[in-house]
Amino acid sequence: MHTSENGKIQTSAMTIAGSDSGGNAGIQADIRAFHVYGLHACTVIAALTAQNPYGVRSVVIPDQKFIADQMDSVFEEYTISALKTGMLANSSVIEVVAGKLAEQVGVLKVVDPVMVATSGAKLLADNAIEDMIGKMLPVATLITPNLPETSVIVEKEVSSKSQMESAAKEIYDKHGCAVLVKGGHNLKSMAEDVLYDGKELTWYSLPSIQNPLSTHGTGCSLSAAITALLARGNDLKTSVEKGKQYVWESIRSSIFVGKRATVLGTPGIS
Questions:
Q1: How many independent structural domains does the chain possess?
Q2: On the chain, which terminus has fewer CB atoms closer than 10 Å, C or N?
Q3: Is residue 28 scored above 80 in pLDDT?
Q4: How many angstroms separate the most distant Cα atoms in the chain?
């Protein structure tokens, strides 16, 4: 469902994630990406964070009923073509979100298994890691773990390209979801990620941007851009390729929004 000639129909996508008071990551980054691609953004607030680019000061987690009510309210009235999840901070949140998503069989689902913020702050309780893996991965169309998250999921170190490929295959074989292993933590001259869709491995490479003003929110932005592109009818490989380009342009166009604070740019997308 795309915008019609009279402008009265618009594709919708949903984000289920944490709110970033600084507007860099989380729900705010997701809305920004959805709007860039011309989508209406529906939001389910799974956490409230007090943060800026340099750290998370505090976190408030809504109860299960409120999260469920948000999801039900959206699904009752909006046609959601695709959705993504971000910060799901504990087992209670994961339980209700996974349960509701399992009911939405026809909706494409991108799961960003958020565990640690760019600043180093923990965003997932230790005792919830097993639930994230066991409950969220099986309902996902695609997951987008970085290298540390991938290592946690497969319970072994993942750093080399061959290890990234093996891990992606292992996760798909066990959980049935496509996997995009992000190699950003190994940045050298190229930013390299690998996608496994159950049939073949596809590598995506872009030149790394040296000394960028901001990288806060890149993981959220990538999964949101992929979600938006899937919602607009692109296939998985194309969505990943264009989503990675979106993030690259966002990093390249980062700007100051305070004396020290910086934010990813908002690139124009054709």
A1: 1
A2: C
A3: yes
A4: 53
Question: Which pLDDT score, from 0 to 100, does residue 226 have?
Answer: 98
Q: Is residue 3 part of a domain?
A: no
Given the residues 26, 86, 183, 219, the one annotated as active site: 219
Residue 134 CB partners (closer than 8 Å, separation 6+):
none
Question: Active site residue: 18, 182, 227, 243, which one?
Answer: 182
- By DSSP bridging, strand 80-85 and strand 55-60 are unpaired
**pLDDT(6) > 70:** no
Any catalytic annotation for residue 217? yes
Residue 6 lies in a domain: no
215 tagged catalytic: yes
- Residue 202 is a catalytic residue: no
Q: What is the pLDDT of residues 8-27, one digit of tens each?
A: 789 999 999 999 999 999 99
| 5 in a structural domain | no
Catalytic residue among 109, 220, 227, 244: 220
Catalytic residue status for 219? yes
Residue 120: predicted pLDDT:
54
Q: Which of 11, 15, 141, 218 is catalytic?
A: 218
The domain that holds 250 is classified in CATH as 3.40.1190.20
Could you give the C-alpha distances from 212 to 26, 250, 262, in angstroms and in order? Answer: 20, 10, 10
